[in-house]
Design a protein that fits this description.
Two copies of one chain form a homodimer.
Chain A lengths: L12 H20 L5 H8 L3 H7 L3 H21 L8 H17 L2 H5 L6 H23 L9 H21 L4 H14 L7
Chain A binds a DNA duplex (30 and 30 nucleotides) through helix 1 and helix 3.
DNA sequence: CTTACATGCAACACGCTTGACGCAACTTAT
DNA sequence: ATAAGTTGCGTCAAGCGTGTTGCATGTAAG
């Protein structure tokens, strides 16, 4: 987890703190204004603009680093839900709630269309695989129809989570209730009376 | 439908053609690169950059005009499905297919977060209202659970359409089949065996 | 045909963003 | 305490996107 410079040596403690601060503040600033300049980000982070350039070679490099950071957190959010050991329905609820929370904190970054950094791509693929695995287990457990297309299912699941995040952004709702809505809608749709 | 200049007089025929071309090409270019410059858009449209500035006072004005154009087309896509007279299930299928097609052609524009132009806002609100009306009719007809929250239902419906558009973008599928998937998923979810 | 409109082209000014540099002051780690 | 690393500040250069103007050449409309 400790970042290293081109030098090979690890960053000093205060420098690593600075890097983290910049990443988090950049997410906040860019989610409000995607065209914000590095100067705005630096100001919001309470550092000089040159410091941002010292830590990130270019604007692209900064956004790439944000992507790596964000996807790692989403992956973590999935892992703590034990997607391959916990009962599928339990894991589904838990993971949904965790991912909603994680993605809410990185809306700009995870919304970026293209991933340039290979590590970000790799993390994204791992997330993708874990999601498929979870849905596969749910299908085998009878939660999902045996005929359900897992690819379409994954897309629908993803879309529902996105909507839940937007709901949370406009009217701060209980994360667990949101997760319940997502899972319930995914499994049962909205056409029948719910339990 | 005929645009007018600040002068009050209608545009000459060739000028109106140019305006339409710029709007459509801008959508295509910006959907591939949201940060594309006006010079890139002008080049792609086969006109001089100054012509773009002549027709649209600023970059913002261009994007606003695109929004108005796009939302009018989406509204049209809804209207031809007769949302307030056709049987709810029929209208739902028809409108879903139409809207998927219309939105596919204006992905960048309809994906814009904030609408500045009052006419675009108005069109958006009309679309919103028509959607609610359709879902209300579907609920009264027994297609949707009486307890279903229409606001959440609209969000889910919207999200499913977005996913369908992405599917269509990656692998060009039959629009009607996509619409069927969307409606079926909305009503029944993915947990039970489908007919 | 004639008038008014539309376009392309070249050029210009302006502001903003990015990226780089050296130096003095400060903080961490050994 | 010493050495290495880190930061803020001022400064500079270069590039790019935006917006404007004037003029000559086309083109639609009466």
């Amino acid at each position: 987890m400790t970042e290293t410079t081109a030098n090979g040596r690890p960053l000093r403690a205060d420098a690593e703190r600075t890097v983290r601060t910049i990443l988090e503040v950049a997410e906040r600033v860019l989610s409000e204004d995607p065209a914000a300049s590095l100067a705005q980000i630096a100001a919001a982070a309470g550092v000089a603009r040159t410091t941002v350039h010292r830590r990130f070679a270019s604007r692209e490099a900064l956004i790439d680093a944000m992507a790596v950071h964000a996807f790692r957190q989403v992956e973590e959010a999935i892992d703590v839900g034990r997607p391959d050991t916990a009962p599928p329905l339990v894991a589904l609820h838990q993971i949904t709630a965790n991912v909603i929370q994680a993605k809410s904190s990185w809306r700009y970054t995870v919304g970026q269309p293209q991933l340039r950094d290979p590590e970000a791509v790799a993390a994204h693929e791992r997330i993708f695989a874990k999601c498929h695995l979870l849905l596969g287990r749910a299908q085998q457990a009878g939660l999902l129809s045996p005929e359900a297309d897992l690819d379409w299912t994954r897309r629908v699941y993803h879309a529902l989570i996105e909507q839940a995040i937007q709901v949370q952004a406009s009217a701060s709702t209980d994360p667990d209730a949101l997760a319940a809505s997502v899972v319930d809608t995914l499994l049962n749709g909205l056409g029948r009376v719910r339990s």
